[in-house]
Amino acid sequence: MIENSFKLFTSILQEGIDTGELSSRLNPEEFAQRMFISVEGANAICRVLGSVKPMHVIIKGFRAELESHCNEKEQSEKS
After folding, report:
1. Number of Cβ atoms within 10 Å of the Cβ of 15
2. What is the pTM of this model?
3. Distance from first CA to last CA of the chain, Å, rounded?
4. Residue 51 has what DSSP assignment?
5. Which of 2, 16, 59, 71 has the highest CB neighbour count under 10 A?
6. How many other C-beta atoms lie within 10 A of the C-beta of residue 58?
């Protein structure tokens, strides 16, 4: 199950790279693994603390990182 999740997210990121939506600087395998591992860790900490704040921190960080890999055309369309 975990390996399938890595593969699926990696393929989605790779498709973004292939279509030019994401920068080729992004390593899809590494990003997918870091994201999955971080979310799982944050999930455990959220349960212990009884707060969703750690998950929000993780999501905010990964969102910013992904946005930094968006090609300039995509970023200008958001502005």
Report:
1. 12
2. 0.78
3. 38
4. -
5. 16
6. 19
